[in-house]
Amino acid sequence: MRFSQFFIPTTKETPKDAVLKSHQYLIRGGYIHQVGSGIYNFLPLGKRVLDKISKIIKEEMDRAGAIEIMMGFTTPAELWKQTGRYDKYGKELLRFKDRKDNEFVLGPTCEETVTDIAKNFIKSYKNLPLNLYQIHLKFRDEVRPRFGLMRGREFVMKDAYSFHSSYEDLNKEFENMHQTYQRIFHRLGLDFRVVDADSGAIGGSGSKEFMVLADCGEDTIAICNQCDYASNIEAAKRQKRTTQAIAPKAEFAKFNTPNISSVKDLCEFFKIDAFYILKAVVKKIIFLPESQKESALAFFFLRGDDELEETKALNVLNNFGAGALEIVDATQQDIREAQLFEGFIGPYALKNLTQSDFIFFDEDLREERDLICGANEIDKHFVGVDLSTFDGLKYADLAKIKEGDLCPHCEGVIAYKKGIEVGHIFKLADRYSKDMNAVFLDSNGKSMPFIMGCYGIGVSRLLPAILEQKSDELGCVWSVTTAPFLVDIILSNTKDDRQVDFANLLYEKLQKDSIEVLLDDRNERFGFKMKDFELIGISFGIIVGKELENNQVELVVRDGMQKQVISADIEKITTLIKEKL
Ligand code: ATP
Ligand code: MG
Asked: Which reaction does it catalyse (predicted)?
């Protein structure tokens, strides 16, 4: 490609809302162009990178045995009503009507559409397993579209859905996709971690996320410093805690604690460590609309120095069949109306007082003694509390893991890191097939709903994810597998016939050898062209300048910007570039 005849609208202007370097460079490098909030055009360079990423994904998905299709972006609402998601999905789902008043949605994900395909065409276990994928647009009306392609409203996703006749088969495909994703992200040159993710009420090891490590990431992940344990903070586990602090051993007794209601004040008052305080976190449950239940209070007990992880709390409620849509903080008034006193809430007689079915204790407190807790009376606490004397307490993993906690798998220590979610694999089981009555005949001739898995990759998000990890202060740095061009021939003086001839010959040779090359033949200053080379981030630059008189050109490696004088020999240059690839 000749730069002068191509379309790369680089600019010095940085849009005001572009806070991330990836966003700035993609705009300034002429890769993308914003059309509306969270909606972008891919200009030629952007399209080239998108295609390269898509090609790698496609090759690996095909190799893994998945089959490419393309589903409609516009989906009849009827399908979404069958699974109940039409009502539940919330405002991210764009719903609209056509001229005949038929309702539609713009697909934020395609479980319903693909399940409908299986329902129509797959009748027998003999046709299973099947993994169908597409690389296509998605629309999610995100509350806060931001960071350019990182969180768009319209974006490109690779979404795959597998169908199975058994859970064993689903587990096999889940592992196959796990491996496939690792190959994909390795080929893209990314430093990433596979983390356990929250799988909602389904639970288990049914969900993994692929996180690109980068400081700007919106997700916090917990990583062990010794083994390969890594988890999204929402799902992270830890070893049972221990402490050096002395336990407040005491006979069970009620104590006057006037105005002592915070964990900190209690610690000072009793001269103890917060480890021994039984803290109550009170939440209000908002139930799913179809349950038609009024809101109710839920109580979560934790150690005084632990925090409640809300995703875990919501899952625990739903595992106990609560049918909760969300949980919010209980207000002072909610607590008063329940005959309780903020800062003095404890487990004694709590169930009788509140009639609540939703009282849970963090796993770390199982059978613990020497605790101090609220007495459900104003200005009173109990000491010498022993949870092993209670019957039928419901324990669950509720606490948010902290830096310094011990890894659940080894003696290592947990630290936080920031990650960008670029992929997510998920065991769906029969969540969709059951509702849509998508069934097949098993080997006994019995009708069974398909067992399903789903596997997503944020294809357009990968552009900024790569840049956040690799770029420098000058501009984009791509992996050689994703750069829009591999070589930029920077022609220093377009009036110098010798330079022009050499640049043209080199250009033709590289093209002939199928090396993607851009010839910067624009009638611009050398410095200007160099700046564009740095900004765009083509893997290698060959500077054809004055030194050509001495039979020399310069090779620049964009990643690190090392320069090297080499002899102006077209064969040798081509070989050198091939070696570097
Ligand atoms: P996030 O937590 O970032 O909102 P998600 O968990 O909702 O993502 P999934 O439903 O798992 O996303 O979608 C699969 C993949 O699509 C994600 O791993 C992510 O890489 C990508 N993705 C999701 N939302 C967006 C978006 N608004 N813009 C760009 N890519 C997105
Ligand atoms: Mg996800």
From this structure: tRNA(Pro) + L-proline + ATP = L-prolyl-tRNA(Pro) + AMP + diphosphate
Report yes or no: 214 and 418 within 8 Å, Cβ to Cβ: yes
Residue-number span of the structural domain to which 161 is assigned: 19-191+434-468
The protein residue with its alpha carbon nearest to ligand 1, atom 26, reads 151
Residue nearest to atom 23 of ligand 1 (CA): 458
Find out whether the beta carbon of 421 lies less than 6 Å from any atom of ligand 1.
Answer: yes
pTM, 2 dp: 0.90
Sign of CA pseudo-dihedral 563, 531, 54, 107: positive
CATH of the domain at 295: 3.90.960.10
Q: Using omega within 30 degrees of 0 as the cis cutoff, is the peptide bond preceding 145 cis?
A: no
pLDDT for the residue 205: 56
- Residue 107 Cα to ligand 1 midpoint, Å, equals 13
Number of domains the chain contains: 3
Residue nearest to atom 27 of ligand 1 (CA): 151
CA distance 193 to 227: 12
Query: Could you tell me the distance, in angstroms and rounded to a whole number, from the CA of residue 212 to the centre of ligand 1?
Result: 13
Q: Are residues 381 and 269 in the same domain?
A: yes
- Max Cα distance, the chain (Å): 97
* Shared-domain flag, residues 74 and 183: yes
Mean pLDDT of 301-316: 96
CA distance 49 to 426: 27
pLDDT, tens only, 159-190: 999 999 999 999 999 999 999 999 999 999 99
Does 56 reside within a domain?
yes
pLDDT for res 201: 52
Instruction: Provide the percentage of residues in the chain whose pLDDT is more than 90.
Output: 94
Residue 225 is assigned to a structural domain of this protein = no
Ligand 1 atom with least separation from CA of 209: 18
Pocket test for ligand 1, best of 421, 454, 468 (most atoms within 8 A of CB): 421
Instruction: Give the closest residue (by CA) to ligand 1 atom 1.
Output: 421
Would you say the CB of residue 148 lies under 6 angstroms from ligand 1? no
Ligand 2 centroid–CA 426 distance in Å is 9
Q: Does residue 390 sit in the same domain as residue 444?
A: no
CA-based nearest residue to 552, from 560, 562, 542: 542
